[in-house]
Fold:
Amino acid sequence: MGSDSPFLLAAVSLLSALQMGYLARRVGWSRMAHKVLPPSVTGPPEFERTFRAHQNCVEFYPLFLVTLWTCGLFFSEVTAAAGGLVYMIARQIYFNGYVRSSKKRLRGFYVTLAVIATLSLLAFIGILRGILHKYFDIHL
Amino acid sequence: MGSDSPFLLAAVSLLSALQMGYLARRVGWSRMAHKVLPPSVTGPPEFERTFRAHQNCVEFYPLFLVTLWTCGLFFSEVTAAAGGLVYMIARQIYFNGYVRSSKKRLRGFYVTLAVIATLSLLAFIGILRGILHKYFDIHL
Amino acid sequence: MGSDSPFLLAAVSLLSALQMGYLARRVGWSRMAHKVLPPSVTGPPEFERTFRAHQNCVEFYPLFLVTLWTCGLFFSEVTAAAGGLVYMIARQIYFNGYVRSSKKRLRGFYVTLAVIATLSLLAFIGILRGILHKYFDIHL
Structure:
């Protein structure tokens, strides 16, 4: 890759992948603390909340990556990378909150949704501009 | 990105990410309708079918993105984007069918498999051609 | 894409996507063998181990793709592609082992973690070098 490569998007993607690995590890630690042996995924409420918190992060991770990269490549790399960092912090608040109680998951979760909505909107603008330019010769 | 960027692949990826967000929302609505509080994932049959329908979409989503982009970048962007739209429609038919009954999930599911098989085959052809060209100086 | 495109990363990504499809199929076969009808995900221990083995592969797949591509684009494509092949073999050993017993999942699993840690470290080096070059004009 040349020196104009999307290093910030790559850095945020790598950090978020490591965070996903860390959250998977948290589920493993919760298994040990509550003596829930694989392949079981049921047990004390705290374990089940930890397990579901991780599952929700897994469900949203590809969706997050798509909005991060489409916003970053087609609208603004710095904006997307900043949004990605906010998403990661909000995911951590979500996860830590959910481990304590189901209600405490909500605050962080709403922030992740706001980030995804924002990145999607900006990506949409960038892609639409690109399609109008490339296929219809309309310059905005 | 320049004006020759893969805008169609980006557009289909962004739309499919929004669809994944919408399907996650459907699970949330089903939770409310059937009073299944997080972190529980068991409840009335309709809720459990809705939950599993979403899980199956999640399991296949990265796989779909890989075949969409490898086919789009190494074979044909328009073909891949068209296949991606068919995949999204089939996923919606799958999801709506599965919510009604387990049997009704099959029709849409088979279409998603056919799209993934087609995109994979075309991507394989494009990548093989590229590898033969780059590493073996064989031009097909 | 030009003739300098990352064909090896694309090839490994496509192969790993097909492997994920095959592992999903294995869960389907296990459903049939043990008469576990969708949407149920509980049943005989062997089915539950097969199901969890697949779920774990799903949880790690986007994380694997991110480390594969960041290492491949920003450090070395050949190294990343080789790591990706090792990861795929280790995933298969993990899956086949887990189907037989929970303990037999560990050997393959540790290898997948080692691959992800190695790819992440190399990707980190490549991205850091790129950021220092692009934003701080420091050449390593």
About this structure: Chain B touches chain A through 26 residues (CB under 8 Å). Helices of chain B lie at 7-33, 45-74, 77-100, 106-136.
